[in-house]
Amino acid sequence: MGRAWKQGRLQIEDYTNYNYNARLMAGMHGFAFMPVFEGILHTDLFRKRSFMGEDKYRVIKCPFTGKDTVLVPALNPDVCVIHVQRADKFGNAQYWGAMGSVQAAALASKRIIISCEEIVEHDVVQASPHFTIIPAFRVNAVVEMPWGAHPSDVLGYYNRDRMALAIFMNALKSEAATRAWMDEWIYGCRDHNDYLRHYVERFGLESLHAIKARAFYSAPANYGAAYTSVWDEEGRERSIGLTPEELETFMKEKGVLHD
Prior knowledge:
Helices cover 33% and strands 16% of the residues. The chain is built from ten helices and eight strands. It is flat and about 80 Å long. The N and C termini lie far apart (59 Å).
């Protein structure tokens, strides 16, 4: 990418990680923009602009303080592919560990494709709702793909493959080396399973086993409650002791029920 940029074949807008994530956060929440720290005003990141021009950053007067406030525009990608630890067949995606921009990037996007280390039963997702970062109704497709983040890491499943990453980084030194790496590891593999087979042929199965994560489980969370519904066995709301029909009659009598 750096070579393409220097040769004028690629245009780049440079943001800090925080400012770029703020754009995704705005897109995730449906906002047109997001305020960021004003310190960016004093950097070349603010002054140097490419294809976005004045829309890279905007400065307005804060309606509450009157101070200059720096804004970044919302970002809504057409599609986002993220890899998570697990999901159910409906697409409820569960992820734990350093979040970064994973959730914001997905929820800001128009379409979401989930790949995961394993597809689990829906009961597993229901039993650990705090791990769900993407709800099923936003997901367009879910794919089970063990070792799907390799040579990067997935917490609880495998570590980063430093040998494979070193080979990749070394290939970036020249365009010819990069093309050779892509021909071998991307274009030369029919699919991800073929990629893994090629890896094992080159480096042995023990290389994968060496980076598999050892189990280290967090403490369980108690999701228990005195009851699981606000309605009792007789169909009455527990706090006011009325059935839905009785509640409707009561509200009509008080004149607070509106069609």
